């Protein structure tokens, strides 16, 4: 399970170092995808397969569902986590997420989210201010 947040820098070869606590759950093959909130998500092969199955179940006859599948899979790449815990982030995704140098790596239960540090800091200020309200809204669904 991935939890916690860590600040790292992306290197000149478009790699980030995964926190040591995350490495045991990331095998050599990982998947990097553009995700909501302008972040990248890194999945183990097993967890990416679960996510892909959910998308597979969407209808190709529904325009919104078809668009969602197309956006997700066209912005997903197979990558590697090497012996030093470095994951190569595809350059097109780095640009779309607005990551220049510093990033925040966030555990998100079954995957790792990677945000541009400035974007993450701004988002968290807004989210933490409304934490109680968000909790109430989700609980009352």
Described by the principal axes of the CA atoms, the overall outline is globular
In the predicted model, the low-confidence regions spanning at least 5 consecutive residues are none
Strand content bin:
25-35%
Separation, N- and C-terminal Cα atoms? 26 Å
Q: Please estimate the helix content.
A: 40-55%
Task: Supply the helix-strand structural class.
Answer: alpha+beta
Rg is 16 Å
Count the beta strands: 8
Instruction: Estimate the mean pLDDT confidence.
Output: 94
How are the strands of the largest sheet arranged? 1-7-8-4-3-5
- Major sheet: size, sense and barrel closure? 6 strands, antiparallel
Order of secondary-structure elements: EEHEEHHEEHEEHH
Count, helices: 6
Domain SpoVT-AbrB: 5-47, 76-119
Subcellular location: Cytoplasm, Nucleoid
Family: Belongs to the MraZ family.
Organism: Candidatus Scatoplasma merdavium
């Amino acid at each position: 399970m991935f939890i916690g947040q860590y600040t790292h820098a992306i290197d000149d070869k478009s790699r980030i170092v995964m926190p040591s606590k995350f490495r045991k759950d990331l095998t050599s093959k990982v998947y990097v995808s553009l995700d909501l909130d302008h972040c990248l998500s890194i999945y183990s092969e097993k967890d990416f397969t679960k996510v892909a199955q959910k998308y597979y179940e969407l209808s190709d006859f529904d325009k919104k569902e078809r668009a969602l599948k197309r956006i997700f899979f066209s912005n997903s790449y197979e990558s590697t986590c090497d012996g030093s815990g470095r994951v190569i982030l595809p350059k097109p995704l780095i640009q779309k997420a607005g990551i220049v140098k510093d990033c925040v790596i966030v555990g998100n239960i079954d995957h790792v989210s990677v945000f541009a540090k400035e974007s993450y800091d701004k988002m968290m200020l807004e989210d933490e201010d409304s934490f109680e309200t968000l909790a109430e809204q989700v609980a009352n669904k």
